Amino acid sequence: MLRVRVANRAMCRYHAAMNKPHSNAHRFFPAAALVAVTFFLGSTPGCRDATVTSPATTDDVAVSTGPVTVEVISDDSTQTVTIDDVAEGTTLEDVMRQVESLDVGVTGSGEMAFVDSMLGQATGTEGGWTFKVDGEFSKLGIGSVKLSPPTTVTWAYSDWPDAASE
User: Fold this and answer.
1) Where are the alpha helices (DSSP H) in the chain?
2) End-to-end alpha-carbon separation of the chain, Å?
3) What are the tens digits of pLDDT across the range 111-147?
4) What residues does the Transcobalamin-like C-terminal domain cover (predicted)?
5) CATH top-level class for 65-165?
6) Exposed, middle or buried, 42 (CB in 10 Å: 0-12/13-18/19+)?
7) What percent of the chain has pLDDT over 70?
8) What are the structural domain ranges in the chain?
């Protein structure tokens, strides 16, 4: 209570020094400002009629799908497998793990995923499996390559010097 009296006396001395009549209006200014701001925000066009919606989930977004064709070129033949309805953004690792008919061996996962064998031919010190996505060699591993169907992935077993020159 003492603080209020000191503050009020100071205010009264101010009014007296300025030769102005004392008013208690300054006591109500903070409350009046709060009411004005609340009224302004409440009357802004579009705000009072706005509806709050939750952010879209992946279930709400239509993800395009399409076929991914996997071709494996070996010395004596080419085998082709098509996987339908592959979602855009699916990694090549996920696709290769689905291809059972080519006897694919994948080691590791994510950025460290690696095809270490296919059709009974294992990667070794002399050569290994290389791939192209839509005719272009990838600079990324199978766990980092995101596909945009329709896509064709072509695998070939090459000796390491031959693979480096391509």
Assistant:
1) 2-17, 29-43, 92-98, 160-165
2) 89
3) 999 999 999 999 999 899 999 999 999 999 999 999 9
4) 89-158
5) mainly beta
6) exposed
7) 60
8) 2-43, 65-165
